[in-house]
Task: structure prediction
Amino acid sequence: MLTLALSKGRIFDDTLPLLARAGITVQGDPESTRKLILPTNRGDLRVVLVRASDVPTYVRHGGADFGVAGLDVLLEADAVQGGDGLYRPVDLRIARCRLSVATPQGFDYANAVRQGARLRVATKYVHLAREHFAAKGVHVDLVKLYGSMELAPLTGMADAIVDLVSSGGTLRANGLVEVEHIMDISSRLIVNQAAFKTKAAALKPLVDGLRTAVAAVLEVPA
Ligand code: ATP
Ligand code: MG
Result:
């Protein structure tokens, strides 16, 4: 039996078409079922539904053989868990966005950086944020949040946030502006290293099928 870890929402929705191109259909809708394990059209493959930030943990510790995780989540997990134990064979090019620094409209970020000011930064991505600001030589006090980062500057709790941005609509709606691009983000296929060897006969064709699916989507945009 092979187990694929997915998170509900964007990643599940965007992975389905790639799975379909690889000949796999997931049975059941995560939004309407309380089941955490979904069968597929293949008797030897099932899907487990976990929190987005738990996908690397499940795959690293063998709760799942492979999974789909955002690069943001993956790099944060690497910082805590160490990078070992996971292969990252395919950039699935789904759930694309960017990790950025944003501040309130009136805040002169460039000047604060130039002056060597100590910035209070709220984020879910404390490790990625720490690395980014350390590389720039900017002093920061990081405040860890689990969601709704946009609120932190509005309440005076932070000068800036590090968050994912796609259209920028959420930032704009909260009077924030993107002042620095940290990295581009997309979701990656991750595979348990041990499983990739012991279950190679079953896993390798699936990984290849998904790689081919990504290439096909690139040629024929939706
Ligand atoms: P949880 O609610 O369990 O903490 P989450 O809010 O991170 O998880 P999603 O919002 O489904 O879960 O995000 C999953 C992944 O999708 C993120 O890790 C990121 O890689 C990507 N993502 C997040 N926001 C966007 C966005 N606005 N546009 C495109 N991709 C995004
Ligand atoms: Mg979310």
